[in-house]
Design goal:
Blueprint lengths: L13 H8 L12 E7 L3 H4 L3 H11 L4 E7 L21 E5 L6 H10 L19 E5 L1 H5 L10 E3 L7 H11 L5 H11 L3 E2 L5 E4 L5 E5 L8 E2 L25 E4 L1 E2 L10 H4 L4 E2 L2 H9 L7 E5 L6 H13 L3 E3 L2 E2 L6 H8 L5 E7 L3 H6 L6 H13 L4 E8 L6 H25 L4 E8 L27 H20 L4 E5 L2 H11 L5 H11 L3 H7 L4 H5 L14 E2 L4 H12 L21
Parallel strand pairs: 1-2, 1-3, 3-4, 4-5, 9-20, 10-13, 13-14, 15-16, 16-17, 17-18, 18-19
Antiparallel strand pairs: 5-6, 7-8, 11-12
This protein binds iron/sulfur cluster.
């Protein structure tokens, strides 16, 4: 198979050096094999931390007849070459792209252009070749809303890779030399769930200019059903390790997929439904796949795992001499074994996500955490040896007022009241970094009906101006920054409201945005200018009100979640009512389970 199991620090080009320091890469001969390019449209550092990207890489390379090589967004001035063999993109008739975040949509257009490939699918030759490859796109951003990318893509794979990737790839390889582009994508869409060939579906707009539907050929499904893995015997885990990845040499293992908590702002909690916890045996089997010298394991899905399971895993990792690492954890999930493991793990920094600034807002977003949970967690973490606490907060949430922001400042005050005495005793105070992010109303969540940066519920068609909303968010940021300034060892980081607004536009966008992305990629112009040139506005995408009768760009995807359920949850948020977490054994409220 030619898979690199050992590392050695090599010399030579940057590409060769990266390769030499990796574990898990496949170096396969090309003779007699079908080449596939796998692109992550961001840097090596970011892409190599994506478990989904790694999984596709391994699944493709485990097929004897395929050779899959990775491409990442190169630095300015660097060539776009595959990591494994340094080949150009035009040597790959099949291109797979994994997209996790909206801000990488622009990079999709950029990479295709830099690789010498016509970025729009309609401009690529009907006969598939290296110069005119078949572009297949997947990843979590595409099963949230694939539409802004649709004109660049021949085929989307909507959902999780494991159930369909092998069959779909076999079909594409078989047909790529004998059929034309549209025949191939139509054929594969007829055969396999999760396949969405955007060229075969046309968006239909109403007289008011709002999207009213997609027309589909009669022989294809009207909506594309997401595919997902029901269960597994070995939990998904890292396939590649690199010291240059964002999670440097951290071996990730899933505890499950999705999340049962039902936080109303979180798209992952909806588009990965039903929430699935892998069995203890499957998780142990996943962790057991780590390299012998792995000393740090990161668990994904800790929000969902119950306390007993976390304790078992904590004990197991402790006995195996493995440190546990995680980026964020639920403040109400800190048990003694977990804290003991943490204390011995040399982990100095942990994030807690209150998300909502106040107790009331945490009810609106259905976070299921109260102030005491957060304060107690901070205290216990610092007592266990943590020197750096990160707190995630959002501004611009539905119903938010300045009073909610004041409560965030009081929360930090109370946390400091508990953790500073611990810090003084050990001679080093804990630093707090408050990461403030503007809330983006994402597709497939109850807040999909809500306008970006607006507190109140707008009527259908009513909108706020971009300037008004951005100024309001800037003022909120200023208020919080001033409030936190009074505290020593408290730092604030935040995003820029204008940039996040564009993220919201992309998250909620339709195909018209592809021209905006293309102009940005070709001319290097800012998004506002590119939108203006296309006669599009922020207001029409992200700053107006919707109701439950609306058809959205993402309605083309079928997650089995009823729109009426999301609307009800939206109304419950405004009524200050919480909803129970998922109980997949008996619940059928959203439409996903027992349908
Ligand atoms: S039907 Fe109930 S348990 Fe199943 S995903 Fe929906 S809310 Fe969760």
């Amino acid at each position: 198979m030619g898979r690199q199991k050992k590392t050695s620090v090599g010399v030579g080009s940057g590409r060769q050096l990266l390769l030499n320091q990796e574990k898990g890469s496949f170096l396969k001969k090309w003779t007699g094999r079908q080449p596939i390019a796998l692109i992550y449209p961001n840097s090596y550092r970011v892409g190599m931390s994506s478990l989904g990207f790694q999984l596709v890489y391994a699944l493709l390379n485990e097929q004897e007849t395929l050779v899959c090589e990775r491409f990442f967004l190169p630095e300015k001035g660097d060539d776009l070459l595959s990591v494994e063999s340094g080949r150009e993109l035009t040597q790959f008739p099949l291109i797979f792209i994994s997209v996790s975040f909206e801000h990488d949509y622009l990079h999709v257009a950029e990479i295709l252009i830099r690789g010498g490939i016509a970025p729009l699918a309609k401009d690529r030759d009907t006969q598939v070749s290296g110069q005119a490859p078949l572009v297949v796109c997947g990843g979590v951003a595409t099963f949230m809303n694939p539409e802004p990318l649709a004109p660049f893509v021949d085929l989307f794979l909507i959902g999780e890779a494991e159930p369909v990737l092998e069959n779909v790839t076999d079909y594409l390889v078989l047909k790529s030399t004998v059929a034309d582009r549209l025949e191939i994508v139509k054929g594969v869409s007829e055969r396999y769930e999760g396949c969405y060939a955007p060229a075969l579906y046309n968006p239909v707009y109403g007289k008011d200019g709002r999207l009213a539907g997609h027309s589909a050929p009669p022989e294809l499904a009207g909506r594309i059903k997401k595919v997902f893995q029901q269960q597994c015997t070995t939990a998904a885990h890292s396939q590649l390790l690199s010291p240059h990845a964002e999670f440097s040499n951290l071996f990730l293992t899933e505890l499950g997929r999705g999340c049962s908590r039902g936080c109303r702002f979180c798209a992952a909690g909806y588009i990965y439904r039903p929430p699935r916890l892998w069995s203890g045996d499957a998780v142990a089997a996943g962790i057991a796949e780590r390299w012998e010298d792995t000393d740090r394991v990161g668990l994904l899905g800790m929000e969902m795992a119950d306390a007993a399971e976390l304790d078992t895993l904590s004990n197991y990792l402790g006995e195996s001499g493995c440190a546990l690492s995680f980026s964020s954890l639920r403040a109400d999930r800190l048990s003694k074994p977990l804290l003991d493991l943490l204390a011995g793990s040399n982990l100095k920094s942990v994030a807690i996500a209150p998300d909502g600034c106040s107790e009331r807002l945490r009810i609106v977003i259905n976070k299921g955490l109260d102030e005491q949970d957060i304060i107690r967690a901070a205290e216990r973490l610092v007592a266990a040896g943590i020197y750096k606490l990160k707190l995630y907060l959002m501004i611009g949430l539905p119903t938010e007022t300045e009073k909610d922001l004041e409560e965030a400042i009081q929360l930090v005050d109370r946390i400091k009241g508990k953790i500073d005495p611990i810090g003084r005793l050990r001679g080093r105070l804990c630093e707090i970094t408050i990461s403030i992010n503007c809330f983006v109303p994402k597709p497939w969540t109850p807040f999909q009906f809500h306008a970006f940066g607006v507190s109140e519920q707008l009527e259908k068609g009513e909108y706020k101006s971009r300037q008004e909303v951005v100024n309001r968010l800037k003022n909120r940021l200023k208020f919080l920054k001033n409030g936190f300034k009074a505290y020593a060892n408290v730092h604030v980081s935040h995003d820029k409201p204008d940039n996040v607004l564009f993220q919201a536009i992309l998250a909620r966008g339709d195909r018209k945005l592809a021209e905006v992305l293309l102009e940005m990629a070709v001319y290097g112009i800012p998004w506002k200018q590119a939108m203006k040139r296309q006669g599009l506005t922020a207001e029409q995408y992200a700053l107006c009100g919707y109701d439950d009768s609306d058809y959205f760009p993402w309605s083309i995807i079928d997650h089995s979640i009823k729109q009426s359920y999301l609307w009800r949850e939206y109304q419950r948020a405004f009524a200050g009512k919480t909803s129970d977490p998922c109980d997949t054994k008996k619940c059928r409220v959203c439409g996903v389970c027992h349908g």
